[in-house]
Here is the input.
Amino acid sequence: MAGPRSYRYRVVDVFTTQPLEGNQLGVFPDSSGLHDTTMQKIAKELNLAETTFVSPASQPGCAARVRIFTPAREMPFAGHPTIGTSFVLLDEGIVPKGSQSFALEEGVGPVAVRVEAGERPMIWLRTPPITIGKTYDRALCAQVLGLAPSDLVDAAPEIVSAANPAVFVPVKDKQAVDRSDLDARGLATLKGQDNESIFVFVFTPTPEGAYSRMFAPEHGVLEDPATGSATGPLAAYMMRHGLVSSTDGTRFVSEQGTKMGRRSFLHVQIHGERGTRGIEVGGYVTPIVEATMTI
Here is the structure.
């Protein structure tokens, strides 16, 4: 029987230039020999929003295969793991340093990554195809979030998804965002008989873009400091409901995680009128930890 083996991993803070802010991510640059079950156990052990495991790509044109786990489940796509893992792959030379673009193989398929050069490079991902789902009753959304119906703006909450369905609930101001809360019972009330796993994204438009929070109790994440997979859909929702004044070439910022002490800045760039040529989400990455796990 084989003995214990050591696996080196990194922890980075994503969507921030400040240590101990943004969204934490664990990255295992070489996951060879790790079984799916073990990956899930490691993600639960580290108890970060997500942990990624890198292996050689099986699809042509991709730099690496990346599997993404929350403490509770595997995800087909997620934003801060894509950007944080890209940073580690570049930093370690797994993707050649100086690369301006490449693709990562994820559960949703190849995800395009772009590196915007600068004193501190910003890493961008291209959001996978976005779909629009069902709408929700405004009063019910207010109830499960602990808000009054008058706290919500006059736009129907609805599901928008880029592989991970989220209910977007627009409210009138930052104070309402900060007062909102959602637990597993409230989420069950919102879902009713629906079996699809969802999370809830509460936001208010700001001059800079948006101020937001995200709750995902079904994914083992009571609140997420920065949700890159939801930020492209956020832009789509805001365009759909007239909450963004212009579209083609627009860049704006979604501030998330501030209420929980993990302030994050997620940059958005819209390509083409109403995003017809794609929506990119970008951010900075700050390395925090290099360590070894022996299992």
In short: The CA atoms of residues 208 and 253 lie 6 Å apart. The chain has two domains: 7-127+284-294, 131-260.
